[in-house]
Amino acid sequence: MNLAADPSMQTPLVEPRLKLRGISKIYPSVVANDSVDLTVMPGEIHAVLGENGAGKSTLMKMIYGVTHPDAGDIFWQGDPVRIPSPSAARKLGIGMVFQHFALFETLTVAENIALALDDKVSPEKLAPRIKQVSEDYGLPLDPHRLVHSMSVGERQRVEIVRCLLQNPKLLIMDEPTSVLTPEAVLKLFESLRRLASEGCSILYISHKLDEIQALCDKATVLRSGRVSGTAVPRNETPRSLAELMIGRELPSCHITPRDAGDVRLALDKLNFTPLDPFGTTLKDVSLQLRSGEIVGIAGVSGNGQQELLKAISGECLLADAASLKLLGQPVGSLNPAQRRERGLCFVPEERLGRGAVPDLSLADNALLTGYVPEGKTGMVKGGLVQHKTIAAFARDVIARFNVKCGGEKSAASSLSGGNLQKFIVGREITLAPKVLVLAQPTWGVDIGAAMLIRQAIIDMRDQGVAVLVLSEEIEELFMMSDRIAVIAKGRLSRAVKTSETSINQVGVWMSGDFDHVETAAHAAMQEGEHYVQA
Ligand SMILES: Nc1ncnc2c1ncn2[C@@H]1O[C@H](COP(=O)(O)OP(=O)(O)OP(=O)(O)O)[C@@H](O)[C@H]1O
Questions:
Q1: Which mutation among 23, 24, 57 tests ligand 1's pocket best, with the greatest number of atoms within 8 A of CB?
Q2: What is the ipTM of this complex?
Q3: Which PROSITE patterns has this protein been placed in (predicted)?
């Protein structure tokens, strides 16, 4: 570190760890960064805020050498540098946790981390270190577990631990907590504060403004690729930070009580054992989801949410077909397309890979779920693909959900994370389902757009759609659910009215401590609810 004497203060002036001057990045359809200045001091936790598509990830990718500026200068500890590649960035001491994970699904945690480290160490030798660091930082991991069996929350832990093993001087975190539990977030923050007190600088991107307030020393706000302001988060409120970010008053969502209608989706003692040895077995899961209601399912990632979505969507078939009924008909042995034909739409938690095919255009991604049922959307007629109809459908989603992109021909992978999420949720809503199941509907979505998505889901419910939302954000579930259940260790609690419970109570249930409450089937029997008979 270069130190220079400051005669007026009689204290040494510290060189910034990182300084960006006039950084620009231009893509064919958008100026992602426009002459951005940013300074990060040693030991500083610096937030970068902005709406979806404001240019945050692009800026971070330039600092990490994944992509390169078209103009501007980067200074590292006082010296001008070029960062041609991530390995050059790591050599400087820069680590990055990406928003979209770069993990090989068929390899174990230790094998993945060993591949990512510049010093070649065998996975066996690395395993104890991974265990140690993950425990020290409150992000428990089994080094021998295969990545494909892990939920997005667990995968995120792998990415964070991978970075921490490299002892970075600047740690870039692009939405590291988007799918971590509240306790994991608190532990991570303790660790980040410890890292910062040891001199590590942290660049922190998040849409969770309360986290930014709790953690960050400074914030730089981006709007449409430009720096629109800076702030000291502790002197702001989440609302004032949001308004600084979106440049207008924060929208809100409203749910008004209404009576639920007929049972649209019925899970009756649904049992499912995944092939994956690390998966979670679903045990006697029962729930009745009615027309015109939103039921939220809270839970810590990895407690059966993935399996539940697979069982409901048809990605995995059920031995007992009647344990899952859609509109009164057993569907447990039908494939996803057959379930979609009957009015089920769903949003999986992984947007790249499951929710959308990265290399396909938005229009083609619309076709992937919109072709069924034939005739309803008009995307396929007489076996022929109707490109104009598909393009019009995609344009409609882009306009209604304010998806920032270069149009319906843009590849899904070119969209910012939050904008792709808006497109996927918008696509499923626009298909006018009878039952809508969403996992992490606002993952990575900015606070203004999250309200827009939540309101769109509430509007669906008001139109009589039965909606199931799986989310790790308890506040979100309380904002938009009529009833809330908790999934823990593959069992589902009773779904209780949101107005009759509290975040604290649901938090206790999330640890699996709801035996004294009742499981859903038991409670339903006591309440005299009747499951639809086969
Ligand atoms: N490889 C690319 N090709 C074309 N356009 C791109 C590419 N990468 C990013 N963009 C565009 O640059 C803009 C900024 O994207 P970026 O991912 O930096 O936004 P962001 O602020 O990180 O958004 P989010 O909060 O949704 O992650 C967006 O309009 C995006 O579509």
A1: 57
A2: 0.98
A3: ABC_TRANSPORTER_1, ABC_TRANSPORTER_2
